[in-house]
Structures are given as structure tokens and as C-alpha cells.
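Regression test attached.
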Amino acid sequence: MEDVTTEAAPTTAPPFFDVHIFVCCNRRPDGHPRGSCATRGSEALRDYMKARVKEAKIPHARVNMAGCLDRCEEGPTIVVYPEGVWYRYASEADIDEIVDSHLVNGRVVERLRI
Amino acid sequence: MEDVTTEAAPTTAPPFFDVHIFVCCNRRPDGHPRGSCATRGSEALRDYMKARVKEAKIPHARVNMAGCLDRCEEGPTIVVYPEGVWYRYASEADIDEIVDSHLVNGRVVERLRI
């Protein structure tokens, strides 16, 4: 049945989101050796990024909560799909730079890239 | 400073994950008009998919918990990046088909695609 229900490769349906940003909001207990993004402030900065993306009226963009992205030691982290560009960030200013440079103007922020 | 800290387009760094699957695990209260993926069983099926992907030894793949992916009415849903292929699923058999057909053999499962 495979030739009926499947096809050879990912196809050309338009993307549901043009920019899909996943913000790690995993929280480990205080003192955990790997740390976690939420204990480093990711939840508030996720909310900030959502507001900034909305304000910038970036079409078909979504800022999404995610569980552990498994780059804890480098966090807090986000990943921007479909490009697969990863960032660490530490402040609202970092989020502003990612939104304004990358999401609005298409320029990756190399200083925050991981 | 933009020419120092940024560059013109997403660049060629190898992807951290070759396949990054986000499983909506958002839970709304019972009776909410939009429903939610978790109330339709996504959490247990996420765990099942994680186990199946591990068992299949798919390299550089990660099954990730996600918050609301905003396609609640079609859920439970997952999205596979960087391809941006979306699925709805309802059972372990559906997950098996996505893992075996798409993730292992590169064939999108059209009957589950949304």
C-alpha cells in the first residue's frame, strides 16, 4: 500500500508557519548540574519575544514554548525553523536583536548564534 | 555594527538535529471549545514516539515536547522540521507509520498529513 498512501519525499505544500521559533522553557530543580533554560529566565523572555514578534507584524510567524531542546549548557536557547538557526540569549536586548535583525531583516545574529 | 555582528542570510552550519519533531502537548480544560492535543492523548503518544525513534536509531533526531502549535482543531498534531511537514495522529499505529515511512524511509505519510 505504500505507493498509495505515501510519496517519495517531503512535498511542496506551503508552510503553515514561515517562521517557527521554539523557546526552551524546560525547568529543572535548582542546583541541577545541567541547569535549565527556565531557571535562567526563559519563560519571561519567551513572553517578551511573543510580544515583540506580534508588534513587528511578522507574517506567519509563531513563537512556541518547547520542552528541553537538549542544549542546556548553552542556554537559554531558541531554535528558528525551518532554517534551523540556534541562538542563546540573556536579555530583552538580545531578543530585540534576534527579532529585528534575523526575523525582520533576514540577517542572522552571529554573536548570539550557537 | 551590523556588518560585523550579522551576515546576509542563514548560513551553512550543520544542523544540530537532522530531524526535529515537535509534539504538541498543550492541555486545555476539559470542555474547552478548541480542545487540545493533550486531552486527546498526545503525551502518551509523544513518549511512544520517543521510544520508537530511539529504537530505530535514527541519527541526530529528537522528539520534543511543544506547547500549543495552534492547530488544535486538527489535533493531536506534530510538525517535523526542517521539512515543515505536519501530521495529525491518533494511535500508536499512526506513530509507527510516521516513524517507519517518513523518518526511516523518507516517505511522507500523506494519509496523516495536514
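Expected vs. actual: identical. Helices of chain A lie at 2-5, 42-55, 92-104.
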